[in-house]
Amino acid sequence: MSTASLRTADDLTTYRHQVDEAAQFISARADAVPSTALILGTGLGGLADRMAVTHTLPYDEIPHFPVSTVDAHAGRLLIGTLDETPVVAMQGRMHAYEDYGPWQLGFPVRVLGTLGIDTLLISNAAGGLNPHFSASDIMLITDHINFLGLNPLTGPNHDGWGPRFPDMSEPYDPALRRCLQDVALEHGIKLQQGVYMAALGPSLETKAEYRFMRQMGADAVGMSTVPEVLVARHMGIRVAALSVITDECFPDALEPVHIDDVLAAADAAKPQLTRLVTDALARIAA
Ligand code: HPA
User: Fold this and answer.
1) Which residues face 243 on adjacent strands?
2) What is the pLDDT of residues 36-91, one digit of tens each?
3) Atom of ligand 1 minimally distant from the CA of 222
4) Nearest CA to ligand 1 atom 6
5) Coil/strand/helix, residue 270
6) 76-82 and 85-91: which strand pairing?
7) C-beta of residue 43 within 8 angstroms of C-beta of residue 138
8) Ligand 1: residues within 6 Å at CB?
9) Which of 195, 196, 249, 283 could form a disulfide with 127 if both were Cys (CB 3.0 to 4.6 A apart)?
10) Which of 36, 48, 78 is nearest to 270 (CA)?
11) For the chain, which domains are there?
């Protein structure tokens, strides 16, 4: 069976066993698995520098765990504390453009959900479509548009995880969003807000596509996050997500983008992003 796409009840049973095996592997190594998880996106893995790490589990050692193929992603699970707050952090993630099937994309969050996390804070690098945004701004995601052409919840549903038709009227938890806004205000951190559109990639978009996306109602575009959010919401995990705007995708003034520029812009946002996430986590956990 390939977990790329699951069609039958047997496929689902196999997949559930794989999720359970991965979860058991992790819980056997960690003293306790924190209730809050963090996913660190492209160029944002450095956020983990502030963590006091007690356990490092490379993805390729965790049974069945998909392994990220992107250079900028470290590909390991870190368990420890961020300024006293216990967290489990995914340093590196999988993307649909790496040719993972929908269920593989959902695998890490299924494992974290099985381990009992109740809160997921996601970060990503995204291109800014809203003309009020500049490179290195941080955007609080208020809502999303799934333009990936796939959904990790397709195939047979496991009712024990969540409903067949999970509600998406408010995927990004209002209380968590307010908490992040409060922290930003208190520290004088500029926090933009907006709608994130997930595109398949790996090519960046054309001017015509950026124009289309903006007209569809998106403020930023990236190649991740939405599959993780869908799985988390399916399992009843509350979610907040932040995009670092790494390049300006304005169709009438578009400049060529190089991955080095994307990583440099992500790096420039690191101090503010770190403060925001660290303080918000402390309040969420309190
Ligand atoms: N599209 C355009 N620019 C970007 C993206 C994207 O998906 N991610 C980061 N910068």
Assistant:
1) 124, 139
2) 999 998 767 778 888 999 999 999 999 999 886 665 556 899 999 998 899 999 99
3) 7
4) 222
5) helix
6) antiparallel
7) no
8) 125-127, 199, 201, 204-205, 221-223, 246-247, 249, 262
9) 249
10) 48
11) 9-285 (3.40.50.1580)
pTM above 0.85, yes or no: yes
Phi, psi of 266 (to 5 degrees): -65, -40
> By alpha-carbon position, which residue is closest to atom 9 of ligand 1?
126
Q: Provide the token pair at 94.
A: 């999988």
CA of 204 to the centre of ligand 1 (A): 6
pLDDT at 284: 87
Q: Which token pair is 255?
A: 């400049």
| CA angle (86 as vertex; 62, 32 as ends), nearest 5 | 55
Name the residue with the closest Cα to ligand 1, atom 2: 127
DSSP 35-104: SEEEEE-TT-GGGGGGEEEEEEEEGGGSTT------TT---EEEEEEETTEEEEEEES---GGGT--HHH
For ligand 1, pick from 145, 204, 260 the residue to mutate: most ligand atoms within 8 Å of CB.
Answer: 204
The answer to whether 21 and 63 are in contact (CB under 8 A) is yes
Token pair for 229: 């959010």
Q: DSSP 3-state helix, strand, coil percentages of the chain (rounded to 5)? A: 40, 25, 35
Query: Which pLDDT tens digits describe the chain residue by residue (286 residues)?
Result: 444 567 788 889 999 999 999 999 999 999 788 999 999 987 677 788 889 999 999 999 999 998 866 655 568 999 999 988 999 999 989 999 998 889 999 999 999 999 999 999 999 999 999 999 999 999 999 999 999 999 999 999 999 999 999 999 999 999 999 999 999 999 999 999 999 999 999 999 999 999 999 999 999 999 999 999 999 999 999 999 999 999 999 999 999 998 888 889 999 999 999 999 999 999 988 7
